[in-house]
Design brief:
This protein is mainly α. It is built from 15 helices and no strands.
Length: 364
Amino acid sequence: QLISAAAVVASNNAYEATAWKTYLFFVAILTFGTVGNIWGNRILGRWNDCALYWSILSVVITSIILLSMSEKTDAKQVFTDFNNETGWSDGVAWILGLLQSALSLIGFDVVLHLTEEMPNPSRDAPRAMLLAVVIGGITGFVFILVILFCLTDPATVLASSTGMPIVEMFLQSTKSRVAATILALMLSVCFINGTSASITSASRLLYSMARDKGIVCHKFFAHIQPKLDVPVRTIMLCYIFNLLFGLLYLGPTVAFSAYIASCTIFLNVSYACPVIALLVRGRSLLAEYQTNKTPAKMGLRVGAVINGIAAAFVVVTSIFFCFPAGIPVSANTMNYVSPVVGGFYLLLAVHWFTGGKDFQGPVI
């Protein structure tokens, strides 16, 4: 969408950003990430390092340009005004507004899917997870403040012909189509890098699950291509899956929105399950796997408090994320996340009883 919006701005609205054109951009980016994961395995580490610096640099450059060139709103409006047009109470509307921020901070578990390829996973994996949250939280907080201070005309920005309010905001701030296009493409590169990293993580996760007989056709997918030293079959599974589900973008908006929102809930639930299980059984179980040299330990009390807060946050927000964005509700504004989540867990239950007996968990 950012690339399509950049094309609209660069062409002075001569380019029409239709759904199928945006899907083709999606296919191109997905193909690029897939090819990089299959034949570029040796450079993935440095690619991801560059992606980190690019993301931080993009936030810094964009923030400086917006703050230096845009008109400003006052601090009172940024920090104290609360505009609720959802029909819900202010508390519910605030929780519903967490969906986008929650979506931007999930996925920090991807490093765990690569621990078998790390030289010191017991030290580096927890550190990477913490740094992902810290860096993402800081840059996200700074960037949202910049946007709020520079958002002087919300109505025009939201009604932009580009289809992406942030790109319209770039155009309003810089008064230059060239500058707005460059800024939009800078952010697009961040998503391209993220696509490649997501394929890397998901393919490793699928491979390890197949090796442990945890998915269907596990014998076929538990395979490493000898010459390339990567799980090509699971990489291609990710590619085909994303191609098919990307077609939802060509259909009703509510279907695509339900799919995107369900991803947040699925990941949240996957984080909450082991945390809740640990709270129920007691953190003393961890002592068997920890020594004085264990690099990441929180202790019984501090760990229990953090686990409790994390579990409560995930459970509460996941429930509210199933609510419609506003009321009253129509067929076009209804939130269809609940049937999507319910249908998916029904499939999981069927697989649990039919294929779960074959699963052999990893040796810890």
